[in-house]
Write a structure and sequence with these properties.
The complex is a heterodimer of chains A (280) and B (287).
Chain A lengths: L1 H24 L13 E7 L4 H14 L3 E8 L1 H9 L5 E4 L5 H7 L1 E15 L7 E2 L1 H9 L16 E5 L4 H10 L10 E3 L2 H9 L4 E6 L8 E2 L1 E2 L6 H5 L6 E9 L4 H11 L1 H9 L3 E2 L2
Parallel strand pairs in A: 1-2, 1-3, 5-10, 6-7, 6-8
Antiparallel strand pairs in A: 3-11, 4-8, 4-9, 4-11, 4-12
Helix pairs in contact in A: 9-10
Chain B lengths: L1 H39 L3 H4 L4 E2 L4 E2 L2 H32 L3 H14 L3 H20 L7 H25 L3 H9 L4 H12 L1 H17 L2 H6 L17 H9 L6 H34 L2
Antiparallel strand pairs in B: 1-2
Classes of the chains: A alpha/beta (280), B mainly alpha (287).
């Protein structure tokens, strides 16, 4: 058991190192447009976006140190408010802005990634498919034993994410229909922590971003649909959302170049590397 | 010339001392100001006794207070006997080479970052607790307390053994002359003399347990229900603050975590003041 963990750890480190090296050696075609530019881009809003924003910003700033890019969180609501009032250049949201918001601030939205959230269980758990209604009952604490779902007579350990998690937000909204999650649920703080928690707990159930799924855990088919990048992309798997960047009016100058970069092959590669689904 | 230079150095040290003191007080003032809306609405005290259900607009921190209490008390129960045993071994039974060597290891242990303990706990202790007690996820109060006990033990060991070694040598010599064994010497001479040191060590250990974030965050499971047994998943105040801060800066949730911050500050303050009081007693009592 243990050597396998260490191998995993080594693998993760290797990946991190490779990423680091790719950034250094990046064949910076898409970045050429930033050469000779100078100025600042301020970004705030959705927290799920931050890893992608950070990677993009690092690439841009390392090729041109005269460009300053600041990235803040705050959540989708904050993002819309701040970009609408001109406090930042880009406001990120994990949902489409409402018609009211679009009308009030004249927002333009750019969907550069899709994020799907899939339910996961331990590999040895025989329950590999659930109805959505049962999933809601598990997470609200009405179903507490795997026996009730045709599994072994064992208690269900429910795992959820922290309040700041965008993954949690999508799952709660589209997977659970905004039903309150049982107070007894264990809370973990990242997609990675969720995976290792469920991988180590034969009685556990949790959820991760579809891009994060691997063979350390088992995905659960929901209402007959398997959560994969393909089913999320074609819309048959419903627990998903777009990741949006919003600007007030049409973007100009550096802001436009930044958004174009997100849609470039390199930008979309960053999207995939961070576990999201590319739109192009 | 030299005296002016010394004067300057003295002044700069004074400035440094005042500055760090002012910072500590300013942090408290800052928390009070940000928590002010809670006091004004009279919600501060109700927060201390209500549950945390954001979906129903309830933002109480009662479950987290209970989680903190359970985890720190239990970790003290595991850690204190261990610490007393080790410090007796180091200072009373084997004060020679072995004791000195062991003490160096303990000093080294105080320097290990908490995240290392927590990380090792996840991979070694969690599966063990899970299979041994077949209760829940393995991330619960017991697991967190065991790791936390290991974390707070070095602090307690060093303070305990320091106070054991402070016992005047003439007392020990007298006990030796009367033909007492090492254990008798400890129970009848050293223990009565150094009880203040033991209480100081316990309080500082408890303060570390209350204030530690990562061990509880990674090992206690973070459920927001009030824990009913040591196998229940629980959330501490510190973990709660870490989990909520990241989310939002404009919401009621965010305001209520200042209630948790103020509470933690006060708990630590009371503990430190008690320690100060005890050490002032000691000065008067010693010959």
């Amino acid at each position: 058991m243990l050597p396998k963990k260490f191998r995993l750890l080594l693998f993760v480190q290797f990946i991190a190192l490779t990423l680091l090296l790719t950034v250094v050696n990046v064949n910076a075609q898409a970045l050429d447009v930033f050469k000779g530019e100078k100025g600042e881009i301020m970004i705030s809003g959705g927290t799920a976006h931050i890893p992608v924003m950070k990677d993009a910003a690092r690439n841009i700033m390392s090729i041109n140190p005269n460009i300053r890019i600041s990235i803040a969180g705050g959540g989708s609501g904050v993002g819309i408010k701040q970009v609408g009032e001109g406090l930042v250049n880009i406001g990120n949201t994990g949902r489409t802005p409402t018609n009211e918001e679009v009308a009030k601030y004249g927002l333009k939205m750019f969907k550069w990634a899709i994020d799907g959230v899939g339910v996961i269980v331990h590999k040895k758990n025989p329950v590999k498919s659930l109805k959505k209604i049962d999933l809601i009952k598990i997470y609200s604490g009405e179903i507490v034993n795997w026996k009730q779902l045709g599994g072994p007579n064992r208690p269900i350990n429910v795992y959820t994410r922290d309040e700041a998690s965008g993954t949690r937000e999508v799952f709660w909204e589209k997977g659970l229909g905004k039903k309150t999650i049982t107070l007894k649920a264990n809370v973990v703080v990242s997609n990675g922590a969720m995976k290792s928690a469920v991988a180590n707990d034969p009685n556990g159930i949790g959820y991760v971003s579809v891009g994060h799924m691997d063979d350390s855990i088992s995905p659960v088919t929901l209402d007959g649909v398997n959560p994969t990048i393909k089913t999320v992309k074609d819309g048959s798997y419903k627990i998903s959302r777009g990741l949006y960047s919003n600007t007030k009016g049409d973007p100009t100058g550096l802001t436009k170049k930044f958004i174009d970069y997100l849609f470039s092959p390199e930008g979309q590669k960053i999207v995939v590397e961070n576990g999201f689904i590319a739109v192009k | 010339m030299i005296s002016r230079f010394e004067h300057l150095i003295e002044k700069s040290f004074l400035a440094a001392a005042l500055w760090s003191m002012a910072l500590t007080i300013l942090i408290f003032v800052f928390m009070l100001i940000l928590g002010l809306p809670l006091f004004r609405e009279g919600r501060f005290f109700s927060l201390l006794f209500t549950p945390w259900i954001p979906g129903e607009e309830q933002f109480g921190i009662y479950p987290m207070i209970m989680g903190t209490a359970a985890i720190s008390v239990l970790s003290l129960c595991f850690g204190a006997p261990l610490a007393i045993g080790v410090s007796v071994f180091i200072s009373v039974l084997q004060p020679g080479r072995l004791g000195r060597w062991l003490k160096k290891v303990v000093v080294l242990m105080t320097g290990v970052p908490t995240v290392v303990y927590a990380f090792v706990g996840i991979f070694l202790l969690v599966p063990l607790v899970q299979s041994f007690f077949t209760a829940g996820s393995g991330m619960n109060i017991l697991t967190a307390s065991l790791v936390l006990a290991l974390l707070i033990a070095p602090t307690m060991i060093l303070i305990f053994s320091g106070s054991f070694e402070n016992v005047p040598i003439s007392y020990c010599n007298a006990a030796d002359a009367l033909g007492s064994s090492a254990v008798q010497k400890f129970v009848y001479v050293i223990l009565p003399y150094s009880w203040r040191g033991i209480i100081t060590g316990l309080i500082l250990g408890a303060a570390r347990a209350v204030g530690d974030t990562l061990v509880a965050l990674m090992l206690a499971g973070n459920a927001v229900a009030v824990p009913g047994s040591v196998f229940d998943s629980a959330r501490t105040l510190t973990a709660h603050i870490a989990l909520v801060t990241a989310a939002d800066f404009d919401s009621i949730e965010f305001r209520t975590i200042f209630a948790g911050g103020i509470l933690l500050y006060l708990i630590t303050l009371i503990m430190v003041l008690t320690v100060r009081f005890l050490s002032s007693l000691k000065k008067e009592a010693s010959p």
